[in-house]
Amino acid sequence: MERKNVATIRAVAEAAGVSKTTVSFVMNDTRPQVDRIPEETRERIKACAAALGYSSNVIAASIRTGKRVWVGVMTEVLPSDPVLWPSSPFFHVSFLYGVQRKLADNGYFTILALRSLENEVQDMELLASARIGGLILRSADAPAVAKAEELLAVGVPVINVFPREKSDLFPYVVDLDNVRAGVVAAELVIKSGLRNPACVTVARSRPSLLDRQAGMVDTIRRELGIVPGICELPISNGDDPPKVDNVRAFKVIEEFVRKNRPDALVALDGGASLVLSLALDNIPVEIPRDVSVIGFDSFLTGTSKFRKLSSVGVSWLNAGEVAASIVVDQVERGQTAQQLPRLLQPVFVPGDTTTPGLSHEVTIDELSSLITYADR
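Request: output the structure for the sequence above.
Response:
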């Protein structure tokens, strides 16, 4: 069998006119040595390596230098509430793709742990035993936050993405600017010329929902001089984490719409958005003629009355990239709380449930990262 020729570090060194050690420093990004090499030389080495098809053995280099090139990621693929299963994988896959892409761009590898609600701390300990360079959590619960604080104390960078409570691992968090998200929803309502809006939220709301509600209510009160109605969906007793009681919620929504006749309904999270969408299928209103509907992180949601729900959301792909960038920066430059927490800006993706042509300021990059998988 013919043996394939493999480019060696010696060949790259000869082609670039430098020593093998210099090639090693550049290709493995060895600091501080690589910082002392002129940029022109570094670029020449990389060009020669690319032309010869040479790539460094990152894993071998990490063993030799002690650099930790593995970053743990703990998340879930499906939430505990089956109602959210149809759209949930899109968000989680987007998040993981963002993390992995950014880590790979910086020469790091991803170790994925699918979160177990029963043994989340144990899963974190297993990741830590693998000598990871850093850890990215998504919406960690209280025991996991406590364990993460232990890891931070011994120098392992940890980032909590979309924290459940504001204090969870603060300031090492990446989160949506939830107040701004509520403001955006209110501005969309006002721009549509609607004058009787209402929020749809969940009983025992998380702090993030309360912030979105505050942003919307304050903006509506200031601009329109009214206080929007609040439709609070009941939760099932005994569920941990709590879930919306769908049967009771349908009745609550129907009664609220009949009594208050809102011309706009803004659901403040994905669960409330989906339940609201399903409930509206059984209420005699025309959407968006009689009532405009804005969901949250629900632009994949559709029913028999509409193909796609207009939605305020956040790019989970971008959230993953930002979290990975922070971890890489902390691994390579030491832990720092500077520029943390990192708040992400909300974007609006119009669907069939708002006035045609309604839009909000959003860059092409933000929109493309938000809907990377939506149209595939």
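The domain at 178-314+348-370 is CATH 3.40.50.2300 (Rossmann fold).
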